Amino acid sequence: MNSVSIQGVKGSFHHIVSQHYFGDNILVSECLSFDSTVDELLKKKTDVAIMAIENSIAGSILPNYALIDTHNLHIVGEHYLDIQHNLMALPNQKIEEIEEVYSHPMALLQCKAFFKKHPHIKLIEDKDTAEVAQRIHKNKLKKIGAIASHLAADIFELKILNHSIQTIKNNETRFVIVKRSNSKINHSKINKASLKFELEHKEGSLAALLNVISDCKLNLTKIQSLPVIEQPWKYSFFIDVTFNAYQDFEKAKSVIKIMANEFKVLGEYKNAKI
Length: 274
Known about the structure:
Elements: E1 2-7, H1 13-22, E2 26-31, H2 34-42, E3 48-55, E4 59-60, H3 62-70, E5 74-82, E6 86-89, E7 100-103, H4 105-110, H5 112-116, E8 122-125, H6 129-139, E9 144-148, H7 150-155, E10 159-162, E11 172-179, E12 192-198, H8 205-215, E13 219-227, E14 235-242, H9 246-259, E15 261-269
Parallel strand pairs: 1-2, 1-3, 7-8, 7-9
Antiparallel strand pairs: 3-4, 3-11, 5-11, 6-9, 6-10, 12-14, 12-15, 13-14
């Protein structure tokens, strides 16, 4: 049985991903921050951690890139989840009676247009979507709403007042599955990798490296830069690449090692988009 640390409580989107990826036969450790999610893994209290890494609307979750890199964690898989935000409250209440809605800042941002139509509702940032639903259920909080998943509504016996209230209906989040050590995946099944590197601050250095990726038949699906701590205006690059043949990736990797500084493979795994 896998033990998994997630950001949030049961009913959260991370919990849903854990069920999709591992099935129901898992032990879930609930954490209210990504730092504590990683701590559980590092202290060997769990075997795996699940972390949101980017959203199709809001973009990359930069602190999570730093957590994976700093603690030398290994990405062993990924999962894409369609995010549907639902407004919920205790049963027998109407939206006109709701005075305050608490939720994660990202959820509030993604539902901004909906709440403009309901100006009587005060929006308050909180730690987690499902944890608010849990609190409403536990304390029987009337006139308080949560933005969370269908699963959270079911678990905490709340009534969904409005379904799918996010502004952009096609709202997808990519989650990564991370471990303390790299998983043993057969090379024939690996067709995606996450890499980190630094480059000399000179003209054309990034372009030259991207040309290597192209020449080796790799497809660049993501590029993200983060500042190098204590080195102002110097950056690390985090990239994702996909490929059809592992040997093409190995060839590119051998060249990038020579060209780049601080080169690191964050993970080699199966592309979940295929």
